[in-house]
Amino acid sequence: MELPTTAFGGAAPISSRWTSWELLTVAAMAVLALATVTLGMRRAFVVVTVRGRSMQPTLRDGYRVLVRRRGVTAVRPDDLVVFADVIDAPPVPAPTGAAEDDGLRTVWVVKRDSRLYGYVAAERLLGVVIRRM
After folding, report:
1. Taking the model in full, what pTM does it have?
2. H helices, E strands: number in the chain
3. Are the C-beta atoms of 80 and 111 separated by less than 8 Å?
4. How far is CA 110 from the centre of its chain?
5. Most confident range, picked from 3-7, 30-34, 58-62
6. First and final CA of the chain: distance in angstroms?
7. Which sign, positive or negative, has the C-alpha torsion 107, 113, 119, 124?
8. What's the rounded mean pLDDT across residues 62-91?
9. What is the CA radius of gyration of the chain?
10. DSSP letter at 103?
11. Can you tell me the distance from the alpha carbon of 75 to that of 58, in angstroms, rounded to the nearest whole number?
12. Which helix (H) or strand (E) holds 86?
């Protein structure tokens, strides 16, 4: 089978079988798929910055870790877990008309061994550290 040629001897462009409507549909589906995957990843994973020295030498102050959101039943021995803790912090001045600050702050705590920290309620668990970033 011989391809069509132009007046200058080059190959003539082959006409596209896709209409603009079909291309637009495919592009919209690709964007929707990408958005769905991104949303799923944001629900499954979170990045936490380590503050403090309590996890040294495993994790140092300023390290960022990737945490997979998991339930308490998925936690295994020796996992690094991240959970919410409420600390008493100095109150922040509130703007006029805003609610008063009670001085309580929620922080994420990274721990491997709860023998020194104690038991943590399951609803406070954020997830398990997967890796350092």
Report:
1. 0.58
2. 1, 5
3. yes
4. 16
5. 30-34
6. 55
7. positive
8. 79
9. 27
10. S
11. 18
12. strand 81-88
